[in-house]
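Question (not urgent): is this output format expected?
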Amino acid sequence: MRGHGTVNVRFAFESQLDEIAAHLGIDPAVIRRRNLLKPPTVTVNNLRVQSYGLPECIEKVVERSGWMQRKGKLPRGRGLGLACSHYVSGAANSIIRSDMPHSTVNIKIDRDGGAVIYTGASEIGQGSDTMVAQIVAEVLGIGLGRIKVVAADTDLTPIDIGSYSSRVTFMNGNASLRAAEDVKKKIVAAAARKMNCAAEDVIMRNDKVWKRGASEPGAHDVAAENILEKADAPRGSVQEVSGRVEGQILRGSLQQKRKEEGPKDHMSFEEAVVSAIDFSGALSGTGSYAPPKEARGGSFKGAGVGPSPAYSYAAQVADVSVDEDTGMVTVHKVWAAHDCGRALNPVSVEGQVIGSVWMGLGQALEEEMVWKDGLLMNPGLLEYRSPSAVESPEVEAIIVESVDPEGPFGAKEASEGSLAATIPAIANAIYDAVGIRLREAPFTPERVLAALRTKKSAPKALEITRGADPAAPKTFREHGGSLWFKGKGPQRHVDDPARRAPTQIEAGED
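Got this back:
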C-alpha cells in the first residue's frame, strides 16, 4: 500500500464532499471549484502553497471526459465519478532529527569533458537517476552522453535521507542543480579569461561555449573536435595529439592549440573544461538542499506532519459500470490530470501517473489484507490479488504544469499524488451508477450486493457480509478482525485457546 494513510483520508474526504454536493443539489465539479485556494497562500494549518494547478486539473478532466454532457444522463448501472487529491514534494521536516541538508550532490568533471555525479539518492525504478542527469546536463549545456551517475552509499557519495515521500526529484534535483551551477561558475570564469570577456557574457549550450554577441559555433567550427577524434583513433596517430612535454604544456594538446591561436569568440566544452582545470587543478562542485523554514509548518502540536516545500495536485474522473445481479464493478476509463510543476521528462511523468492510478485501482477493487483475531489471513501474494495488465482500463494521463518557484526548473512531485484520487473517484462513480455509498474498500461484489440489498430492504440482506452493512459499518473491519470500536479492546474468537482459563498444575506433576 502506498501513501501512508493519506489515501484513506482522501477516500473519506472526497466521498463526503460528494455527499454534501448531492444534498445541496450542486454538481460535484462545481462544489470543488468553489472551494479552491488562491496561491500564493498559507493555509489555516500553516502549509505554504506557492503553485496551484488544481483548477486546471479539474477543468481538463471535466472537458476530456464529457462530464457536463454525460453526468447523470447515463443508463442505470453506468456512472461517472470525480475526485481530487494533493501530495507533498517530500516532507519538509526530516525523519533524521538534525539540521543537516536533506540532499547533497557532488559533481566532478574530467579533462575529456565527462561529468560524474555522486548522489546518495536511491534509484528504485522511479527514474531519479535520469532526472539528476537531465538537470545537470541542462545547467552545463551538454549532452546526456557526457554524464555518468554514481548512486551509491556514503563510502562514495554524500548523504541523502532516502527515497520516500515523493522527494527525490524535488530535493535531490535541487541539490544537483546547485552543484551544477557551482561547477559551471568555475568553467565560465575560465572561459571568460580565455575569450577576454565578462563571465556574464559566456554562453554554454550544445557542448559549445561562446561569448554573447558572437554567433553560435557550428558542428565543425571548433578545431579541438578534430583533435579529440584523433585521440580516439588507432595507435599510430596518438603521438600527433600528445606530442612532447614543453614545461607543463603538451605540444598538440588543447592547451597548446589555444596558446598558439590566441583568444577566440568560442570554444568547445572540452577546451573550457581544460582551461578551468589548468586554473584550479581540479574541477568539481557541490550542492545541497533543505526546505526553507517558512515551508516547515507551524509551531502547534502535530504541525510537523504534512508540511512540504511544494504540493502537487490531481483530479480524476472514472467511468464505471456496476452489474446489479453479480455486484461486479468494471472501470472502463480513467482521466487523470496531474499538476507536477514543470514536467522535466513528460514520458516519465505520464508513466508515473498511469502507475499510480493502476495502484489505486488495485486498492479500490481487489487488494485487501484480511485479519482475524489479530492474525493475517492472506496465505500469500497469490491470494492477495493485486491487479495485472488484464484488469487495467484505459488511463488517459494529462500533464498540468504550474511551475513551482521552489522546485528544480519548477518541478514538483509526480508519483504518489495521483493515487489518492482514484479510490474516491470510483466510489463516487458507483454512487452515480446505482445509488449506493460504499465506506470500505475494496469494492468487492459481496459488498456491492450487500449495499444494494440493504437499500432495497430485501430479506437476508446482509448474510454475505456477516451482518455488517458496508454502507454504514459499525466495526473497524467487517471481515471479523479485532474490534477497537467505541473504546473496546481487541476481542478474540470464543474458541481461541488464549481465552480459556489456565489450568492449575497439581504439585508433583511433571
